[in-house]
């Protein structure tokens, strides 16, 4: 089991991997195409989550690469981002977030990615599953279930949207598993039920990883495992699996977001491949904003 005394981040306060800029003034097409520049309407501020997150680093790099000298990236919580985003959209105010797919906000709001002609945020990513060395020999059924775990953006967003609408995450995960027996059967194919074998998964407080970790944990419990899930920060998630303090994670964003952590720990973990294809990060705005590219922020 995980030995460290982690400071838990609350699910209610940290449900996303995004940055948000608080708006000032109107965000309608008329407002953003008038005398005020996009930067002026949002006070040239992009507010982010934890400073070590890959999306924060990419945003800082975008400021440099696109010559946005007046812009600043500030850190914030994921909960604050979702609240600010919702408030801005309700009032049709301008706002810029660095978002990612999959995320429930794309199912709830009309949003668009800003074009990134310089490729600062990279191409589409995969969310991959990593386990500690030796787990295949010690816990073969657990290893095989995680190896076979794979789903789509739409499937993941069903769970995330339920949570954003007020459903408890454990309840939402159980309901999804009940409603998707055929998919779950693909994950458990060729495995046997066990009697209370203890396993631990670690994850970060992003909506996507809260959803995926709770869903696979529910599947494992129904297969007889005694499952513990532990919420930690990005670096600690990788360190826990690499050093054998946790058995695995389904939350590795590659090649970009967790690329530096992967390089640090790739020889100490087993890569089981992608559990979700087509993940993406970048700058996101409501569709009512008259801006299409990061270049337009100059």
Automatic annotation (TrEMBL):
GO terms for biological process: choline transport; glycine betaine transport. InterPro entries: ABC_Gly_betaine_transp_sub-bd. Residues 1-21 form the signal peptide. Keywords: Cell membrane, Membrane, Signal, Transport. GO terms for molecular function: amine transmembrane transporter activity; carnitine transmembrane transporter activity. It is found in: Cell membrane. The keyword Signal applies. This is Glycine/betaine ABC transporter.
């Amino acid at each position: 089991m995980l030995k460290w005394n982690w400071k838990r981040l609350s699910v209610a306060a940290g449900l996303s991997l995004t940055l948000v800029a608080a708006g000032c003034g109107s965000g309608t097409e008329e407002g953003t195409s008038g005398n005020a520049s996009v930067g002026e309407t949002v006070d040239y501020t992009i507010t982010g989550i934890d400073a070590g997150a890959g999306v924060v680093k990419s945003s800082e790099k975008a400021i440099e690469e696109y010559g946005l000298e007046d812009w600043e990236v500030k850190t914030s919580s994921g909960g604050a981002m979702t609240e600010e985003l919702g408030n801005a959209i309700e009032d049709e105010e301008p706002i810029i977030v660095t978002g990612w797919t999959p995320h429930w906000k794309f199912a709830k709001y009309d949003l668009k990615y800003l074009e990134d002609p310089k490729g600062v945020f990279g191409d589409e990513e995969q969310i991959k599953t990593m386990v500690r060395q030796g787990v295949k020999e010690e816990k073969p059924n657990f290893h095989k279930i995680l190896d076979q775990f794979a789903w789509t953006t739409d499937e993941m967003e069903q769970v995330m949207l339920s949570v954003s609408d007020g459903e408890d995450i454990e309840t939402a995960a159980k309901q999804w598993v009940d409603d998707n027996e055929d998919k779950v059967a693909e994950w458990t194919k060729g495995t046997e039920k066990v009697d209370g074998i203890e396993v631990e998964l670690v994850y970060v407080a992003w909506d996507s990883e809260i959803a995926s970790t709770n869903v696979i944990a529910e599947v494992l419990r129904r297969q007889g495992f005694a499952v513990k899930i532990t919420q930690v920060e990005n670096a600690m998630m990788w360190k826990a699996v690499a050093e054998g303090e946790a058995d695995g994670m389904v939350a590795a964003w590659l090649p970009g977001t967790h690329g530096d952590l992967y390089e640090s720990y790739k020889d100490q973990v087993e890569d089981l491949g992608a559990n979700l294809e087509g993940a993406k990060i970048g700058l996101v705005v409501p569709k009512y904003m008259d801006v299409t590219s990061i270049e337009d922020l100059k």
